[in-house]
UniProtKB/TrEMBL annotation:
Record's keyword annotation contains Transmembrane: no
ABC transporter domain: residues covered: 7-234
Residues annotated as signal peptide: none
Protein family: Belongs to the ABC transporter superfamily.
Superkingdom of origin organism: Bacteria
Keywords assigned: ATP-binding, Nucleotide-binding, Transport
Designated name of the protein: ABC transporter ATP-binding protein
Length: 311
């Protein structure tokens, strides 16, 4: 595996009439990495994934996929597979027949194309002969992934692959993607869920209103200390409220009254440390202290809200 980027995008713009879907996007996807695209509804994730799959062409900017510049023609770049807006499947065929049809389009039969193998990889062997019409959303997602795997892609592009998957299904699909990445395949996927991205992706790009507002590892994103809301449960809620109010850098967020057992405070880490020391010195035991939303989720919300409000 050489070090050529799987995706190198610079200054990508894409408009639909007056709507600016992508507004100068830069994106680097390293080989053998799972790269998550996250952003609120309408941020531009699907549009960007569509460009990677050759379903549309950018208005401006440059896009190299697996080291080759993408041209102006609508065509899937070589060795790229995946789907946006759900996998395209034939409901009146079985899972196996769907994959066999795709293999036949490329002049292969089921056996040589590895239909059974990819069905096994995504955990659909038991339902291989059932009609797709009766499949749940999660099963369709798995079959879409199997269809993409059939082509042995070097870049896999998946729009919301965890959509509709139950926890066991999600874990299975995460395992498949991780195994592929370990073998050198690059994966770009979109998600609304920061916990999925954290569990799966080594890199994350956050998009809001068509612009990149963060690109880096999930741990870099979580590490930015930007003031979070914390739930604080103590042995003496009244004293805790008093001390929190008196500590510089601490804001009591919910002011439901002195009798409220759990206090929500907004603080950066140094002020929170100071509050904990003061509580302990005052003989107040800290029974629970945890962010209301995860640091990753909070960073996502802060970055995307900032971008929305500056529109
Ligand atoms: N074919 C199209 N015609 C007109 N507008 C479009 C088209 N495709 C996307 N858009 C607009 O471009 C913007 C970005 O849409 P896109 O679907 O890429 O966002 P997204 O981040 O994938 O959103 P979601 O999370 O809701 O799927 C939106 O304002 C959307 O309405």
């Amino acid at each position: 595996m050489d070090g050529t980027l799987a995706v190198r995008a610079r200054g990508i713009t894409k408009c639909f009439g007056d709507v600016v879907a992508l507004d100068g996007i830069d994106l680097d996807v390293a080989p053998g990495r799972i790269h998550g695209l996250v952003g609120p509804n309408g941020a531009g994730k699907t549009t960007l994934l569509g460009l990677l799959l050759g379903l549309a062409v950018a208005d401006s900017g440059s896009l190299d996929i697996l080291g080759r510049p993408v041209g102006r023609a609508l065509a899937a770049p070589d060795a790229v597979a995946g789907f946006v807006d759900g996998p395209g499947l034939y409901p009146s065929l079985t899972a196996k027949q769907n994959l066999a049809a795709l293999a036949a389009l490329r002049g292969r039969d089921s056996a040589t194309a590895g239909v059974e193998d990819v069905l096994g990889q995504v955990g659909l062997t038991d339902v291989a002969d059932e009609l797709v019409r009766g499949f749940s959303l999660g099963m369709r997602q798995r079959l879409g992934l199997a269809a993409a795997l059939l082509t042995k892609p070097r870049l896999l592009v998946l729009d919301e692959p965890s959509n509709g998957l139950d926890p066991a299904g999600k874990q299975h699909v995460h395992g498949v993607l991780t195994h592929l990445a370990d073998g050198g395949t690059s994966v770009v996927l979109s998600s609304h869920r920061m916990d999925d991205v954290d569990a799966l992706c080594s890199e994350v790009t956050i998009i809001a209103t068509g612009r990149v507002v963060f690109s880096g590892s999930p741990s870099e994103l979580a590490a930015e200390d930007r003031g979070l809301d914390y739930r604080l449960r103590t042995s003496d809620p009244e004293a805790a409220r008093r001390l929190a109010t008196d500590t510089a850098g601490i804001a009591v967020v919910d002011d439901a009254g002195a009798r409220q057992e759990v206090l929500v405070v907004r603080a950066m880490l140094p002020a929170l440390d100071e509050l904990v020391v003061r509580l302990v010195q005052a003989g107040v035991a800290v029974r629970e202290l945890a962010p209301v939303v995860s640091p990753l989720e909070a960073a996502f919300l802060a970055l995307t809200e900032q971008q929305e409000s500056s529109r």
